[in-house]
Amino acid sequence: MARQLDEQIAGRFPVGQRLRVLDVGMGQGTQALRLARAGHQVTGVEREPTMIAAAREALAAEPEGIRERVRIVEGDGRDTGVHFLPGSFDVVLCHGVLMYVEEPDALLAGLARMLAPGGLLSLLVRNADALAMRPGLSGDWAGALGAFDTVSYRNRLGLDVRADRLAALTAALAGIGAPLQSWYGVRVFTDTAADDAGAPADLRTLLTVEERAGRTDPYRAVAALLHLCGVRG
Question: In what order do the strands lie in the sheet with 115-126?
Fold first, then answer.
């Protein structure tokens, strides 16, 4: 996904431009720190204390110049309008968040308002059109059968959450003034890997295969996750 995001940034902004980035639901700060290392000014929003602590610990290990480019705001992603003015950011990330929001329309609209004209909105969501893949590939036929006609599922943390369909999100992005420009699949072949599985010896090849599949039909349509990129008009 990082490669996909870098491709979108490189295609939409001048080389070397220091971007204002908002990472909503930043988690432990993986993407925020990566983008700060690339020279961008990053603001991360997170509400979970354990994630905030992890992000602060990771940030503390970075050189001073990178630490100065990252700001962490403790808060809910649905309250961006409380913390920031409209149009304050060139790039807004919201990765792995929508599945925990029962009604995401207000969150999406708020994220779009944060974008400057021409700004990039990057979403990572669970693919509702492929919910039967994981149980089916695992031989859970009853689970696969029940997954065809729902957008709800139980994740690996044991939480009941929701997924999004590509067509519905495409319409939603058009409605908030940040129409879909590109989309990718994420975890096409690796979704059934065990959480504690170590990195394979041929990790570089694995990533190349996943990246190729994530941009190629029909593979990307059955990915576990979808990476959608909208642009503010």
Answer: 70-74, 41-46, 20-24, 89-95, 115-126, 225-231, 180-186
77-110 pLDDT per residue, tens: 889 999 999 999 999 999 999 999 999 999 999 9
Distance (Å, whole) CA 22 – CA 93: 6
Those residues with Cβ within 8 angstroms of residue 18's Cβ, 6 or more apart along the chain or in another chain: 39, 40, 41
3-state secondary structure the chain: CHHHHHHHHHHHCCCCCCCEEEEECCCCCHHHHHHHHCCCEEEEEECCHHHHHHHHHHHHCCCHHHHCCEEEEECCHHHHHHHCCCCCEEEEEEECCHHHCCCCHHHHHHHHHHEEEEEEEEEEEEEHHHCCHHHHHCCCHHHHHHHCCCCEEECCCCCEEECECHHHHHHHHHHCCCCEEEEEEECCCCCCCCCCCCCCCCHHHHHHHHHHHCCCCCHHHHCCEEEEEEECC
Looking up tokens 């050189």, which residue turns up?
Answer: 63
Residue type, 157: L
Average pLDDT (46-57) is 96
* Residue 193 Cα to chain centre, angstroms: 20
